[in-house]
Design a protein that fits this description.
With 346 residues, this protein is of the alpha+beta class. The protein has 11 helices and 10 strands. Helix 1 packs parallel to helix 4 (49-76). It starts with a helix and ends in a 7-residue tail after the last helix. Bound molecules: 3,4-dihydroxyphenylalanine. 3,4-dihydroxyphenylalanine (DAH) binds at residues 173, 175, 215, 253, 256, 287-289, 310-312.
Length: 346
């Protein structure tokens, strides 16, 4: 088995890939569920324990080199090789045409403007966060699956395996800004936090490892679920049109109790049913709830005196609906043919 791994290692180091098709063949051959690496790991599982140490080490080196090979080609072989790009050095420098706003910036601007009109301020926080602000102070139990390496990009971990409040990561949601605001400000707090978030997801037309969210937080004396509903109804009608209806479904988030998800009547068919809303008449737009007392207490806010509501929504999805973009990857491709189509006051 060691010899086999060595042979594969040298094969991979010399291998060159010409185009996207060849890269896909490489991926299937080595990295797929039934590919060479999985097969070797399967064989490895059956081996006697005495041989496992050395072979396991080699096998991991092999797996790593396959991933590195794939990643290095993936970056250079683009999905749209002939598209004009922002960083194309052969583009003439003059005359230069006026740029356009990115669709995500336009929709973010719309959301901010709606909440600013009803007294919300804008607060921002860093993309590199502590586990403490991203998880612990938001009432995530130590073994909560969202902390798992599968979802979170860790930058440094204090102890291998177990998560620790001192670990540093790329924030997985903008809820981390809630914690920062609560630590700095005393109630009443009425703020929204737009920003970029990161999750370790395979990139496809419907998912990306980078996306954008807007978080909302309102804390004061006597804030109730009725305030949450009225605020979000106002938002939905401003954003999606005055005939828009909303509905709430119960849900679970560690940092809110009770928690809900809000749907709006489908912006395409008005609720009659179409293929965008999968014939339900509703589109899911955000998560929300009453701030959990443990979250208030973790940031030294007296939960016997104050209550609050919070909500969080993605920006990509409403932007896809608004502009009928059907592939998330378009937002990050820097393709001018795509970007030049967006003009707006925001
Ligand atoms: N942080 C949640 C997510 O990324 C979204 C969310 C849900 C934010 C409910 C909230 C909330 O503030 O109350 O999926």
């Amino acid at each position: 088995m060691l010899e086999k791994i060595d042979r594969l290692l040298s094969l991979i180091s010399e291998l060159s890939v010409k185009d996207i098709q060849e890269l896909e063949t490489f991926r299937i051959r080595y990295m797929s569920k039934k590919g060479i690496i999985s097969e070797l790991f399967e064989e490895f599982r059956q081996m006697p324990a005495s041989e496992k140490k050395e072979i396991g080490r080699k096998l991991n080196i092999l797996k790593q080199s396959v991933i590195e090979k794939y990643d290095s080609y993936k970056d250079s072989l683009s999905l749209l090789p002939s598209s004009p790009r922002l960083n194309d050095p052969s583009r003439p420098s003059f005359p230069c045409s006026l740029g356009t706003r990115h669709p995500i910036s336009i929709v973010r601007g719309e959301i901010i403007s709606i909440f600013e009109r009803i007294g919300f301020s804008v607060s921002e926080g860093p993309e590199i966060e502590s586990d403490d602000n991203n998880f612990t102070r938001l009432n995530f139990a130590p073994e909560h699956p969202a902390r798992d390496m599968q979802d979170t990009f860790y930058i440094s971990r204090i102890s291998a395996g177990d998560s620790n409040p001192g670990d540093i990561l790329l924030r997985t949601h903008t809820s981390s800004v809630q914690v920062r605001v609560m630590q700095k400000q005393k109630p009443p707090i009425r703020t929204i936090s737009p920003g970029r978030v990161f999750r370790n997801e395979a990139i496809s037309a419907r998912a990306h490892c980078i996306f954008h969210q807007v978080e909302g937080l309102y804390i004061d004396e006597n804030v109730s679920f009725a305030d949450l509903k009225q605020t979000l109804l106002f938002f939905a009608r401003e954003m999606y049109g005055e005939k828009t209806e909303i509905r709430f479904r119960p849900s679970y988030f560690p940092f809110t109790e009770p928690s809900g998800e809000m749907d709006v009547s489908c912006t395409i068919c008005g609720g009659k049913g179409c293929n965008v809303c999968k014939y339900t008449g509703w589109l899911e737009v955000l998560g929300c709830g009453m701030v959990h007392p443990a979250v208030l207490e973790a940031s030294n806010i007296d939960s016997t005196k104050y209550t609050g509501f919070a909500f969080g929504m993605g920006i990509e999805r409403p932007a896809m609906l608004k502009y009928q973009v059907n592939d998330l990857r378009m937002y990050y491709e820097n393709d001018l043919r795509f970007l030049e189509q967006f003009r707006s006051a925001f």
